[in-house]
Amino acid sequence: MFVLKFVAYFMTHSLSVLSDALESIVNVLAGLIGLYSLYVASKPKDKDHPYGHGKAEFVSAAFEGSLIITAGFIILYESIITFFEPTTLHNLDNGIWVLLSTAVLNLAAGLTAKAIGKKNKSLALSSSGQHLLIDSYTTFAVAIGIGLVIYTGFKSIDAIIAIMMGLWIIYNGYKIIRESLAGIMDEADLALLEEVVNEINKDRHVHWIDMHNLRVIKYGALMHIDCHLTVPWYFNVNEAHTAVEDFTKLIKNKFGDSVEFFVHTDGCMPFSCPICTIKDCEKRKSPFQEKIKWTIENVLSDLKHQLK
Question: What is the pTM of this model?
Answer without folding.
Answer: 0.58
